[in-house]
Design a protein that fits this description.
The chain is mainly α. The protein folds into 2 domains: 1-56, Orthogonal Bundle (Arc Repressor Mutant, subunit A); 64-209, Tetracycline Repressor, domain 2, CATH 1.10.357. It is built from 12 helices and no strands. It has helices at 9-27, 37-44, 49-55, 58-86, 91-104, 108-117, 128-146, 156-172, 176-181, 185-188, 191-203, 209-215. Helix 1 (9-27) crosses helix 4 and helix 3 (49-55) packs across helix 4. The longest helix is centred in the middle third of the chain and has 29 residues, at 58-86. The chain is globular, with a radius of gyration of 21 Å. This is HTH tetR-type domain-containing protein.
């Protein structure tokens, strides 16, 4: 093993975790393409050679960060599924609030996708990771369908796509969304926005006869 490379397994794990945390922290502040190897090593308190040693490259480091983040999100979705089974009342509010909490806790993730997936040379390997999240969201709606909350005629794949579009598009489109509609991250994390999403998902847009009668 080359000089300077930690041989202790615990030290190796600590160095890898520090580099992953550094990548996450730097993405909070700047774009993926602008982050340098030197910045990553300095933020992690280690040598630049450790990035290639553990991850092969800067891209390998960020791809591993995506793997770690996806695994964390999958665990949170599994916990949400258990919560939906144990607490059947208010399932739409529960889903909106829990998933918005997950999404808004890591705004850097959308910045990374903007840089890597929507560029002239997109990183196609990243597409496998959102697929795992998609499967988790679809499973949640199938659970709601089995519980009689979601109408039987709905396609859960399409419902999941619509649901995530409502939640994720404003974040993927920042700062344009903020400029056009005046909705920044604070507004998208507000009780008013969450209540609006719940109202839209539960009652739709069109006034119906029953709601008119109830208002009279």
């Amino acid at each position: 093993m080359s000089r300077g490379r930690p041989q202790d397994p615990l030290k190796q794990q600590q160095t890898m975790s520090a580099l992953l945390d550094a990548a996450r922290e730097l993405l909070q502040q700047q774009s993926y393409k602008s982050i340098t190897i030197r910045q990553l090593a300095q933020q992690a308190g280690t040598q630049t050679a450790m990035i290639s040693y553990y991850f092969g490259s800067k891209q390998g480091l960020f791809e591993q960060l995506m793997v770690r983040t996806t695994e964390q999100r999958q665990r949170k979705l599994m916990a949400l599924a258990q919560e939906l089974q144990m607490r059947p009342e208010g399932p739409i509010e529960l889903m909106v609030n829990r998933i918005l909490d997950i999404v808004l806790s890591e705004p850097w993730l959308f910045r990374y996708f903007q840089s890597e997936m929507f560029s002239d040379q997109p990183n196609t390997e990243l597409s496998e990771l959102p697929q795992k999240i998609r499967a988790g969201i679809v499973a949640l709606f199938r659970l709601l369908q089995q519980q009689g909350v979601l109408r039987a005629e709905f396609d859960c794949e399409k419902v999941a796509a619509t649901f995530m579009s409502l939640l994720a598009f404003p974040l993927l489109s920042q700062p344009m969304f903020h400029t056009v509609f005046g909705l920044g991250l604070d507004e998208l994390n507000s009780d008013a926005w969450r209540a609006h999403l719940c109202q839209l998902l539960q009652h739709g847009l069109v006034e119906n006869a029953q709601s008119k009668e109830g208002a009279q």
